[in-house]
Structure formats: C-alpha cells, structure tokens
Design brief:
It is built from 14 helices and 33 strands. The chain is of the alpha+beta class and 595 residues long. Strand 9, helix 6 and strand 10 form a beta-alpha-beta unit. The structure holds guanosine-5'-diphosphate (GDP). The site of guanosine-5'-diphosphate has 16 residues, from helix 4.
C-alpha cells in the first residue's frame, strides 16, 4: 500500500482492509512507516483520541490498532517476538559434540572477597606455558587445573550475570557463591543464590576468610541449610569449600571441585561448526579500533572468519587472550578479544561466524531494517493483564514472581499463599523474595525470568522504575495481603479488571473569576502547559492538594465554544458540578488509558 492516507479527508474506499502486523508496543514513527503515512497525521489522529505522543514515543498495541483502523488497516499482533533477531543455535548433532571447559561466575555479598578470589585463582593457576606474562582485563580468563581448563568471567556479581540473561545470553555454567565466614549470609548472598537458581545454574559455595579469628564457617553452613541449601557434609548435594582468598588457601581444592562438578554436568559443544558466542565486553581502543571480547559457545573462531555481532560486522583480523597472546583460533568456552569488527557491539549480543563478509553485512543490514520496522522488538516481560491469554494459549507454565516487602515477617505468609494458587496448568513460583525497596537488580531478574514484581508496602527506586517502564515489566503494589492474593488469583482465572493509567494532558491556571448570568461563575484560565480539551477529566488543585475531580464541561475562546485550547492561550473553563473555582487554582486535565 503505497498511497498516503489521511483519515480526515475521505473515507477509505477498499472493502477489504489491508492487514498489517504490529508488535505489543511500537513507536509512532514505526507505525507510520508500516502504514506509509506521514507521522504528523498519526500524531494528529492520536491527539483526536486524547493521546499526546511525539514521534519517538511508544504506544501499545490496543492504541496502535485503533489508529491503524482509522487509516484503513486491520492490525494483527505480531506473533513471533525475538530478542536478538539472529537464531542462536540450530539443531545440533550430539555425536559431533565434545567435552568443553565450564564457564564460572563468582557471586556474593559486597566485600566478601569475590575480586580477591578471582585474583587468587588467576595468580595461582596460570596456564603453564604462559607463566610470567602480564594479564590484562578482557572480561574473562582461563586457568588450567590437572590438564583441564576452567573459564572464569571476570566481572563478578549477580547483577552482571542477570543483565546478560536479560539480554538473552546465558553463558555461565556454574555459580560460585562466596560467603565471608565472619559475616555470614547477607542480603546480596541471598540475592545471588536466588538469581543463580532462577537461571537453573548450579551453585558451589566458597566460605571465604577462614583465616580470620572471628571466622565461623559452621554458622554459614547452618544459614545455608535455612535457605534450603544442604551441603555435602550435611547430607545434601551442594559442594562447599572453605578458603582464604587472601592467604591463597583452599584455592586448589575449590578448582578441583569445580572440575568435578563440570564433569557431572557433561558440558559439551561441537567445535567443528561455525563459531557462535556471546559478547561479554566491548570497547573502542584508540589504536586498535573496536575491540570485543567474545565467549565462544560452540564452534571454533579463526583468524579471517567473517563475523557479525549485534549491529556490527567485520572479519577477524587478530585475536588475543587475557595475556595479550595472539591466538589463531578459539574453541568452545574460550574468551577472546577480537579485532576487526566495524563498530562496538553491545554486551550480551550474539556473535557468529558466517560464510562471507557479504553475508555478514547483509544479515546485519536486514536485522537493522527489521528493527526499524518494529518487526524485531525486545522480548518483554509479561504483564498480569496479559497473563490469562498466555496461560490459555499454553505459552507459559510458570508464573515467576519477585516479591519485595517492607518487613521480613510478611514474606512467608504471602509467599505461601501465592504458591498455593498454582494449578496443574500453571505453577506460581516466587523466585526471589526479600524485604526492601524494588531495585534495578529485581527488574533485571524479572526481565531475565519473564516474571512480574510485587511490592508489598514498599516502593521502587527511581532507576529501577525507569528500567521497568522501558522494558515493560509489571510492578504491582499492595498494602493488604488479601487484595494481593485475590488479584493474582483473578489474573490466573482471567478475571482481572484491566488497570488504567492516567495521562496528564495539561494544566491551566485560574486567573480570573466572572459571573455569567444565572448560570453561576466561569473561570478565566491560562493554559500553562499541554492543553485543555472539552470532556477531559479534570482535577482541581489548590495549594498542592486536589480539592475536586470531575470533567471539563465547557471550554470557550472569547465567546466561541472550542474543543481544545493549547499552551499559552487563555480560555473560559467550566467544570462539571463545581462552582467554587478560585483565583490561583490549577486545573489538571487528564485522560485514563487502559494499560
Ligand atoms: P568483593 O567486594 O566481594 O569483590 O570483595 P574484595 O575481594 O574486594 O574483598 C574485600 C575485602 O576483604 C578486602 O579488603 C580483602 O583484602 C578482604 N579479603 C578478601 N578475602 C579475604 C580473606 O580470605 N581473608 C581476609 N582476612 N580478608 C580477605
């Protein structure tokens, strides 16, 4: 459909509306491009419907489909949602797979010794032939233990781990949870454990700082048991090693145990296919140009291979390991710094080798165009409103919940009640629960696990709120347990009332009051921002408090009735059912939207 359309001019002639597919959310620009209409027309049409949006603003599917139908299109929901756009792994012939090293992330509470442990491992276990060379930070390193390699990601902490997962890249096989023996389990220890569990990554516990006189490893073991982690010594199956990162004690034992765990996991990959991996670090070097560290997950990357990563492409000119040694090839689980991409990819992007430079370039271009069109949209978390349709469609079997409360005491009763709501079709799983405000790390976990967040008598940190809004993560707030449980129950049964968000359209300040015959008084109002429209909902604010809520019943410019008045203009305003407007009152006009 190449003809430009204007809904205002004449009705659309075709009897069959043209069908377009649009994602869950789309920007005004993308929608205009798909319909091939001027974005200004789309913005105008949105305004007629009471939605003020600029060209880059995102609108939801419901709104977009109404606009689309105004322009003569029938909108369908784009069924397939992919994050990266590139397919990561095809069917793999298991007979071609070979054992590969494990990839380990170190997590734990701040100051419990994560960095010290990474340093200790790096220094005690240099790959024999490279001893003495100076290490550089490239995001990961490998060590050799009893002739076998282990890869450590050099950015410790569950935040980095979950951020990678949220971007669709899970590279870690094993999580080492470091707990200081003097301090014991702390909030971030629990968070780290929950994040690892949510990703189904096995845990190995390292009780650190045992050199300290106040060290109390037994207490840590008890605390672990209380958290449901039973160590081998106590009859469970979690490996637990006591170490001192500072005194370099227990490091060998820790590494040997990691090898044992890796062996049990039977980690394998096919080294003889085209390489595929994940970007774990990337930067622009003044002399070398873009440098990206990739963790190869399958296949072998070689010098001269044509590659692409996210929005970038190129050819492998040189590869280095963490000891700045030139590598000719990189096999599965090997981290390598790559020179040769034409830009800096993002952490979490998929990197893959392709047949030729031409293919790399055209795939990246195609991907870029699809992104522009809105055909590839970020995989977003599920909102509670959408839950039921997805359950019905059999698309989800588990509802992951992150629960944050004001006090520790309310966690267990809420968690218990929530988990009891589960049915055969759908399990309700509280993957993380602590007291405190909702943080960015909680939002990341919700994205990575496609979960929702419930705040009970708590609030959200500003950064976390922004992230949640941008990524479409549903955060629900409650202050009564019954309401919380009831809402989730209703959502599971498909009976949840839709929620509405309020969009403020503008403000006006009352500058004069005049009587108009018997009808009473009207207010002379100056529009300070946005616009006032007839029929909009209005809140009368006096000294910062809302004193009345109703609708704008009349709107006049001089003596003429008008439908809207924009910023910088004066108008006469009547409020339905309210006669006590005073000079200095602020009229806030708003509309409610479903969402
Ligand atoms: P991170 O925040 O978890 O990365 O912790 P760091 O590795 O930075 O360590 C925090 C502090 O604990 C530093 O002052 C370290 O020197 C100290 N530390 C780390 N490991 C040990 C240990 O095994 N014994 C003792 N006594 N101190 C340690």
């Amino acid at each position: 459909m190449s003809q430009k359309r204007d809904p205002g001019s004449e009705p659309v002639a075709e009897s069959e509306p043209h069908r377009i597919e649009i994602p869950h959310s789309i920007t005004v620009k993308q929608l205009s491009d798909i319909m091939e209409v001027n974005p200004i027309e789309v913005i105008k049409q949105l305004m007629r419907g009471g939605v003020m949006a600029n060209i880059n603003q995102t609108i939801d599917f419901d709104t977009a489909s109404i606009i689309a139908s105004d322009f003569g299109f029938e909108a369908g929901l784009l069924a397939k949602e992919t994050r990266g756009g590139y397919q990561r792994f095809g069917e793999e012939d298991t007979s071609l797979q070979r054992p590969r090293p494990s990839v380990v992330t170190i997590m734990g509470h701040v100051d419990h010794g994560k960095t010290s442990l990474l340093d200790a491992i790096r220094q005690t276990n240099v790959i024999a032939t490279e001893a003495g060379s100076i290490t550089q930070h490239i995001g990961a390193y490998q060590v050799e233990v009893n002739g076998q390699r282990i890869t450590f990601l050099d950015t410790p902490g569950h935040e980095a781990f979950t951020a990678m997962r949220a971007r669709g890249a899970q590279v870690t096989d094993i999580a080492v949870i470091v707990i200081a023996a003097d301090d014991g389990m702390m909030p971030q220890t629990i968070e780290a454990i929950d994040h690892a569990r949510a990703a189904d990554v096995p845990i190995l516990v390292a009780i650190n700082k045992i050199d300290k006189p106040e060290a109390n490893p037994e207490r840590v073991k008890r605390q672990l048991a209380e958290k449901g982690i039973l160590i081998e010594e106590w009859g469970g199956d979690t490996i637990c090693v006591s170490i001192s990162a500072k005194k370099r004690q227990g490091i060998e034992e820790l590494l040997e145990n990691l090898l044992t765990l890796a062996e049990v996991m039977e980690l394998k990959a096919n080294p003889r296919r085209r390489a595929i991996g994940a970007i774990i670090e990337a930067k622009l070097d003044k002399t070398k140009g873009p440098l990206a560290t990739a963790l190869i997950q399958a296949g072998t990357l070689k010098i001269g291979d044509s590659i692409l990563a996210g929005d970038t492409w190129g050819r492998v000119k040189a590869m280095f390991n963490e000891r700045a040694k030139h590598l000719r090839k990189a096999e599965p689980a090997t981290p390598v710094e790559i020179m040769g991409l034409n830009g800096v990819p993002q952490v979490g992007d998929t990197i893959m080798a392709v047949a030729s430079d031409r293919e790399a370039r055209s795939l990246v271009q195609k991907h870029h165009e699809e992104k522009q069109r809105g055909a590839i949209i970020p995989q977003r978390a599920l909102t509670l409103d959408e839950l039921f349709t997805q359950i019905q469609a059999g698309q989800i079997r588990e509802l992951n919940i992150i629960l944050k409360t004001d006090v520790q005491g309310t966690i267990e009763p809420i968690k218990g009640s929530l988990e009891r709501l589960g049915t055969e079709k759908l399990r309700v799983k509280v993957i993380h629960s602590t007291s405190g405000t909702i943080t960015e790390s909680d939002v990341m976990l919700a994205i990575a696990s496609k979960g929702i967040i419930i705040g009970f008598n708590t609030t959200t940190e500003p950064g976390a709120k922004r992230l949640a809004e941008a990524e479409g993560v549903d955060i629900r707030y409650y202050s009564v347990i019954y309401n919380l449980i009831d809402d989730i129950d209703m959502a599971l049964k498909g009976m949840l009332q839709p929620t509405y968000t309020t969009v403020v359209e503008g403000h006006g300040e009352v500058r004069a009051i005049f009587s108009i015959s018997k009808k009473g008084k009207a207010a002379g109002v100056y529009v300070t921002d946005g616009k006032l429209t007839r029929g909009a909902q209005a809140r009368i604010m006096r000294d910062g408090d809302s004193v009345f809520e109703s609708t704008i019943s009349s709107l006049k410019r001089f003596t003429e009735d008008v439908t809207e008045v924009l910023t910088g203009f004066e108008c006469g305003v009547g409020i339905e059912g309210y006669k006590d407007l005073q000079i200095g009152d602020i009229i806030e006009a708003y509309r409610k939207h479903r969402g």
